Amino acid sequence: MPPFDDKHRESAANDRLAPKGKYRILCVDKFDHEHSIYGDYNSSEEALLIAKRKTENAAGSSSDSSIATVYYVYDDQGNYIEY
Fold first, then answer.
1. Which of 33, 32, 30, 31 is nearest to 12 (CA)?
2. Burial of 74 (0-12, 13-18, 19+ CB in 10 A)
3. SS (H, E, C) 20-74
4. How confident is the model over 7-16, as pLDDT tens digits?
5. Engineered SS bond to 83: which of 6, 48, 54, 68, CB 3.0-4.6 Å?
6. CA gap 62, 82 in Å, rounded
7. How far apart are CA 81 and CA 45, in angstroms?
8. At 33, is the pLDDT very low, low, confident or very high (cuts 50, 70, 90)?
9. What is the mean pLDDT of residues 19-38?
10. The dihedral of CA 60, 81, 9, 41: what is its sign?
11. 48 and 73 in contact (C-beta within 8 Å)?
12. Residue 58 pLDDT more than 90?
């Protein structure tokens, strides 16, 4: 599961819940743990493809081996879906 500090844990827990039958992408800044909802998708495959692509693009633009921004996928129960 992605790391969230205590300050952002409650907010992130609520934001992880996708609408019923959907999959949600959360965008997380790994340095300050700020997060935002990137979007909701009808299938896990679509959400995973987009999240993986966005994370890879972020890695390509980083100045070193650490990625500042990552994208995670969650289902309508708030469960992390790994890609």
1. 33
2. buried
3. CCCEEEEEEECCCCCEEEEEEECCHHHHHHHHHHHHHHHHHCCCCCCCCEEEEEE
4. 556 677 889 9
5. 48
6. 22
7. 10
8. confident
9. 93
10. positive
11. yes
12. no
Amino acid at residue number 80? Y
**Contact by Cβ (8 Å): 60, 50:** no
The dihedral over CA atoms of 13, 66, 44, 46, expressed in degrees to the nearest 10, equals 130
Report residue 7 as tokens.
């300050």
d(CA 25, CA 2): 12
Three-state DSSP at 78 gives: coil
DSSP letter, residue 81: E
Token duo for residue 1? 């599961």
